[in-house]
């Protein structure tokens, strides 16, 4: 199928009103006319691949092709595919554009990546897109908007194995300063390097997980190294978490 004939579903974790989802919708509409937006009603950053099973979910129709779900990014994609678009399922899921990089271990916490995971598990090609922001200035959304259409076109034209999703991160640079695109592996960056302790008005302690990360920004061939060099990072992520080299040793332990 040519990409201009594909049905694209857009989701995110920043919520239906996020600036990034508006950017991604404009990106998608340069690729095809068949674009649908289904996203959480509220921000769900850090929701990871969580699914709501302890309460009912509601869909709010905002117009013919825009819907919100009072749940997680995973809920939004699941309901979009199995209910809203059940007459014809999407051919491609795009998640984002997230305000904030999803690099290293971020992918295990990210609702943006989780939406792409859900699309992948439902048998749909899926791409997560994130824009690294300037903490002290405006987010350079134009960088993602400039490069994403070409990257998506190339990915669509390539081989796409089952159980694989693509994670794309754009550096915090104006488009004209970006140094290219690099395919690499997931780096090491663990959120929660610092816990902030405070006291409530009654003197009892509470804790806030700080956004500080313990990271290895220069390890060669990783997403973090690419971003820190001003390069767009493209990483294939595999949904089968099995660590194959441990199969044989474990079989020896459990003959």
Describe the secondary-structure layout:
Elements: E1 7-11, H1 19-29, E2 34-40, E3 59-63, E4 66-69, H2 73-84, E5 92-99, H3 106-109, H4 111-121, E6 125-131, H5 141-157, E7 164-170, E8 181-183, E9 189-191, E10 195-199, E11 205-209, E12 213-215, H6 223-228, E13 232-238, H7 247-253
Parallel strand pairs: 1-2, 1-5, 2-4, 5-6, 6-7, 8-13
Antiparallel strand pairs: 3-4, 7-13, 9-12, 10-11
Helix pairs in contact: 1-5, 2-4
Give a brief rundown of this model.
By secondary structure, the chain is of the alpha/beta class. It is built from seven helices and 13 strands.
Outline the structure in words.
With 255 residues, the chain is α/β, with parallel strands linked by helices. The chain has a single domain, classed as Stationary-phase Survival Protein Sure Homolog, Chain: A (3-Layer(aba) Sandwich), CATH 3.40.1210. It has seven helices and 13 strands. It has helices at residues 19-29, 73-84, 106-109, 111-121, 141-157, 223-228, 247-253, and strands at residues 7-11, 34-40, 59-63, 66-69, 92-99, 125-131, 164-170, 181-183, 189-191, 195-199, 205-209, 213-215, 232-238. The strands form three sheets. Strands 3-4-2-1-5-6-7-13-8 form a nine-stranded mixed sheet, sandwiched between helices. Strands 9-12 form a two-stranded antiparallel sheet. A hairpin with a 2-residue loop joins strand 3 and strand 4. Helix 1 (19-29) crosses helix 5 (141-157) and helix 2 (73-84) runs parallel beside helix 4 (111-121). The longest helix has 17 residues, at 141-157. The radius of gyration is 19 Å and the shape is globular. The mean pLDDT is 93.
């Amino acid at each position: 199928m040519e990409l201009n004939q594909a049905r694209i579903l857009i989701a995110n974790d920043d919520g239906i009103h996020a600036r990034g989802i508006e950017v991604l919708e404009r990106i998608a509409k340069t690729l095809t006319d068949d674009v649908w937006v289904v996203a959480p009603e509220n921000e769900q950053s850090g929701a990871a691949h969580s699914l709501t099973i302890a309460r009912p979910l509601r869909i709010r129709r905002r117009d013919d092709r825009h819907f919100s779900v009072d749940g997680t990014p995973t809920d939004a994609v699941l309901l979009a595919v199995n209910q809203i678009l059940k007459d014809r399922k999407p051919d491609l899921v795009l998640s984002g554009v997230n305000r904030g990089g999803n690099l290293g271990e971020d992918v295990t916490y990210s609702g943006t990546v989780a939406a792409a995971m859900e699309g992948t598990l439902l048998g749909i090609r899926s791409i997560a897109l994130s824009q690294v922001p300037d903490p002290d200035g405006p987010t350079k959304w134009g960088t993602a908007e400039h490069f994403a259409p070409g990257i998506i076109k190339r990915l669509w034209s390539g081989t796409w194995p089952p159980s694989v999703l693509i994670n794309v991160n754009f550096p915090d640079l104006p488009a004209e300063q970006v140094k290219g695109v690099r395919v690499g592996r997931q780096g090491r960056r663990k959120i929660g390097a610092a816990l902030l302790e405070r006291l409530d008005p009654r003197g009892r302690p509470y804790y806030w997980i700080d956004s500080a990360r313990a990271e290895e920004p220069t390890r060669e061939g990783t997403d973090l190294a690419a971003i820190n060099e001003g390069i767009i990072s493209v990483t294939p992520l595999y949904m089968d978490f099995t660590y194959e080299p441990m199969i044989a040793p474990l079989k020896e332990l459990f003959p």
